[in-house]
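Lecture notes, part 5. Sequence design as translation. It can be helpful to think of inverse folding as translation between two languages: the language of shapes and the language of residues. The source text, in structure tokens, appears below.
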């Protein structure tokens, strides 16, 4: 009996140590910021405004407003968990071809933005970006399309559930932090404390304006069924478009169908 209790105690200690280690390591497993700006919209052939804005907790963020002549519609771009805004040139080109102004910014800790990445801080960053567009630029909410890719989809969904925008586009994103942990660590996730919620599946239920979910069945990083869970939880009107290819290049490999699907969605309810 003593041996059984001793072995059980050892297992508990190992599990507790593992859980503690994973708790500490989780930010480094989720956020991959790059500080160096490698390109600007000028390199992509666009005029742009260099923007610095401040969050409610006094963090200065950096972004670019890329205008499209004569356009009333603006896309608010929430990028994924790696790199920074200078690595999103191909997407900006697509949105520009679709006739949209684009505002893309870096979360805290990314690019020229101050601070360190974190879930609650990123939600404050999203709020600052929205206030910049609606208050500083005086763009009406009905003329703003919110777009989130990968991790950015969770941040976009949080904002979208709190404001009345025109439309929401979610690309290659996931239902929740817990679901992602289960997909990566199917057994160990049951004994890990998941410190990041990112619960898009619940938040999207609050959104009443049009939603487009884009995902690839071939996505090797965020399983397709997690994007499908987000779609299933969304209210009507909603659309689902299946990409072809991997997580990072699916939108590019799915051309021209991808761009056509975006264009069709943007024209809905106009």
């Amino acid at each position: 009996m003593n041996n059984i209790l001793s072995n059980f105690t050892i297992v508990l200690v190992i599990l507790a140590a593992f859980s503690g280690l994973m708790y500490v390591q989780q930010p480094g497993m989720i956020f991959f910021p790059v500080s160096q700006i490698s390109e600007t919209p000028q390199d992509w052939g666009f005029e742009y405004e260099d923007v610095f804005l401040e969050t409610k907790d006094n963090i200065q963020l950096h972004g670019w407003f890329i205008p499209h002549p004569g356009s009333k519609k603006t896309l608010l771009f929430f990028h994924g968990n790696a790199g920074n805004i200078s690595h999103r040139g191909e997407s900006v080109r697509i949105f520009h071809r679709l006739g949209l102004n684009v505002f893309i910014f870096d979360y805290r800790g990314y690019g020229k933005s101050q601070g360190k990445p974190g879930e609650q801080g990123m939600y404050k960053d999203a709020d600052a970006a929205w206030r910049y567009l609606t208050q500083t630029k005086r763009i009406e909410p009905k003329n703003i399309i919110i777009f989130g890719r990968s991790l950015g989809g969770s941040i976009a969904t949080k904002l979208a559930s709190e404001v009345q925008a025109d439309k929401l586009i979610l690309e290659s994103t996931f239902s929740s932090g817990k679901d992602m942990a289960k997909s990566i660590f199917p057994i160990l996730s049951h004994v890990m404390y998941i410190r990041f919620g990112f619960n898009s599946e619940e938040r999207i239920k609050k959104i009443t304006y049009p939603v487009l979910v884009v995902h690839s069945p071939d996505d090797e990083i965020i399983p397709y069924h997690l994007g499908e869970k987000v779609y299933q939880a969304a209210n009507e009107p909603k659309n689902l478009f299946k990409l072809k290819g991997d997580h990072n290049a699916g939108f590019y490999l799915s051309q021209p169908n991808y761009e056509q699907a975006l264009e069709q969605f943007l024209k809905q309810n106009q």
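The translated text above is only one of many valid answers, since several sequences can fold into similar shapes. The chain has a mean pLDDT of 89.
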